[in-house]
Every structure is written in structure tokens, then in C-alpha cells.
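Hey, quick one: can you model this chain's 3D structure?
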Amino acid sequence: MSISLAVSSSSSIESPQARIAVESRNLRVFYGKFMAVRDINLQVEECKITALIGPSGCGKSTVLRAFNRMNDLVPVARTEGEILFQGKNIYDPDVDAVEVRRRVGMVFQKPNPFPKSIYENIAWGARINGFKGDMDQLVEESLRGAALWDEVKDKLKQSGYSLSGGQQQRLCIARTIAVKPDIILMDEPCSALDPIATLRIEELMRELVNQYTIIIVTHNMQQAARVADYTAFFMVDDTRTGYLVEYGRSDQIFMRPKDKRTEDYITGRFG
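Sure thing. Here's the predicted structure for all 271 residues.
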């Protein structure tokens, strides 16, 4: 499978007028007969941070996982519609899901380092993806990219589990960027961290966005307002199916929402 380099440019809610990194068109995801999300049309701008917010159960993480086909790993899951990445629908039959996940990396809610050394946490993924260059240099570059090198450079042979929670999450980010993705997905990456570690991850996201497109799911609206360039607000209907209410620049969403439902959620009237 090869992914075309043509970039899509169709419309969406409050579509950013810039290069589009990834786009969903009429996205629906089912778990068995249950429709988890419906008709999601969303364009994500390249080298920006896009936050997905909304009440619990509205399908934010389901939408996030659709962008790199992680939902495929759930036996009862089924996806309809399109996710366009560099002009190619990643759900086309000829597309390799493993290659999609290399190009669209993911950082999970709970830090999940491999039961290996700090060095091997970085090297292992690169190695199985066919990296043939200078591994020591790649490990250092990845750890520097995750703002972790200075803290671990003298203990690369120690277990990744020896690090603090915040350091483990940055190790997972370093592991992700080691395979040179185009997009990084983050599913509540700070929910298990203390405020100091959370601030460091937020600072790191603002540094990484110079090179990567980042999509983050967060329940923390203050975090979305602090770090995200764009914010998408989701709700759930009477059948418990999630849908997109409003999408735009974060300052507009948080200060001048166009939809009354967005305003009610932002101001704490529900959710």
C-alpha cells in the first residue's frame, strides 16, 4: 500500500483555510448494532493542535481512534464514511492499517512504556518499522524531542518503569515520534498526571506542534483553551450516539460560541 500525497480540500464545519492534515467525511462508527458516533465531518489543520471536547460518552475517543484505525482492533466495531489522509481514504481495502498507525501515532491516557529499558522503548518500535540508521542518534533525538533527554541520558539502560508518571508519558511520546509520524493522537494524555507533570506535557505539545499535527481528547476545558488552536465540541443524542455540534478556533469556541449548546457546556450549565 502506498498513500497518495495529494491533499484533500473539501468543506467542513468552520473549515480552517489552510493545509488539511486529515479529514473525516460522514464518519460513523458502530459497536455491534449500536451507533457510537454519526455523520462526523471534520477537517484538521496541519501543524496545529485540535482538541475534542464534550461530555462523557459522546464519542470523542471513538472519533480519535478512527483517525488511525485503532477501532479496527475491537472485534464488533465497524466504520462507515471516510477518513482522508493525504488524499487517500485510510479505510480503503488496499490500505495497510499498520502503516496508517505508523504515520498516525497515538499516546494513550495512561502511560504505557514497554517492559524494556528506556533505550529499547525508543529503539524497538523504530527497529520493527525498518529503521536502518544510527540508532543511538535516533534515541537521543527522540528523547530530546520529548524534552526527556537531559533527565535520562545517564540511565538509558534502566527500565522505563523506573521513571515518574510524567516522565513515562514523555517516554511514550518519544517512542511515538521515533517512527516519524505525520500526526500524533493523544487520548487524555494528562488525566493520570499531577498538575506539574500536566503543565510539562502541555508545554511539550506546544513545542511538538511545530513539526507535527496533534489531535487531543480532553475532559479538561481549561487545558483545551490553553493548548489547542482549534476545538471541536461533541454531544450525545437521545440514543446515546455522539455527534459534532461546533468546530472552530479555540478562542471563538470558548469566548464566542455560535451554538447555544456549546455555550451551555462551556459555562457549566450541563455536562
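One thing worth noting: Residues 232 and 247 are 4 Å apart (CA to CA).
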